[in-house]
């Protein structure tokens, strides 16, 4: 079975909330499908962003490409609006000395309309999130 990446703007994904924004590194870069663009936090933690998938998606696997993230929590919501989030996973990530952190999470048959990513702590004052890949079926 072929899965679609529903974490792309071209598939209807939207970043509906981000706790910080820099016009040079906006949160919309997370959903542009490119690893060479990114959203950068403006310091202080926690930081978070919410992606609307614009439909109910059955998620098989989530992948996040980021840099300097130490503690990450991922939550999901099935609501019509981005409320009533439930914890999917919280994980301590490994530092990757000058390379992107690429973390894959398998979620057999998890359904979501919204995904919230909360960066609870970091290895430095700023972090970057390059891509979120949401593999699944609508």
Q: In words, what does this structure look like?
A:
The chain is mainly β and 138 residues long. It has strands at 4-5, 14-18, 39-40, 47-67, 69-77, 86-92, 101-122, 128-137. Strands 1, 2, 3, 4, 5, 6, 7 and 8 form an eight-stranded antiparallel beta sheet that branches. The protein is globular. The model has no long low-confidence stretch (mean pLDDT 95).
Rg (CA only)? 14 Å
Question: Termini separation (Å)?
Answer: 13 Å
How much of the sequence is in beta strands?
A: over 45%
Helix tally equals 0
- What is the residue-mean pLDDT, rounded to a whole number? 95
Shape: globular
What class would the helix/strand composition place it in? mainly beta
Q: What is the β-strand count?
A: 8
Helix content bin? under 10%
Q: Mind describing the biggest β-sheet?
A: 8 strands, antiparallel
Topology pattern, helix = H, strand = E: EEEEEEEE
Which spans of ≥5 residues are poorly predicted at pLDDT below 50? none
Could you write a compact summary of the structure shown?
The chain has 138 residues and is mainly β. The chain has no helices and 8 strands. Strands 1, 2, 3, 4, 5, 6, 7 and 8 form an 8-stranded antiparallel beta sheet that branches.
């Amino acid at each position: 079975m072929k899965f679609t990446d529903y974490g792309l703007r071209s598939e209807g994904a939207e970043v509906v909330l981000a706790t910080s924004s820099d016009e040079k590194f906006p949160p919309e870069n997370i959903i542009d499908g490119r690893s060479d663009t990114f959203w950068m936090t403006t310091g202080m933690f926690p930081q978070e962003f919410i992606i609307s998938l614009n439909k109910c998606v059955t998620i098989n696997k989530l992948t996040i490409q980021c840099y300097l993230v130490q503690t990450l929590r991922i939550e999901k919501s099935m609501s019509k609006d981005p409320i009533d989030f439930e914890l999917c996973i919280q994980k301590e990530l490994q530092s990757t000395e000058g390379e992107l952190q690429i973390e894959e999470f398998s979620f057999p048959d998890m359904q979501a309309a919204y995904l919230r990513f909360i960066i609870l702590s970091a290895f430095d004052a700023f972090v970057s999130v390059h891509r979120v890949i949401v593999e699944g079926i609508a």
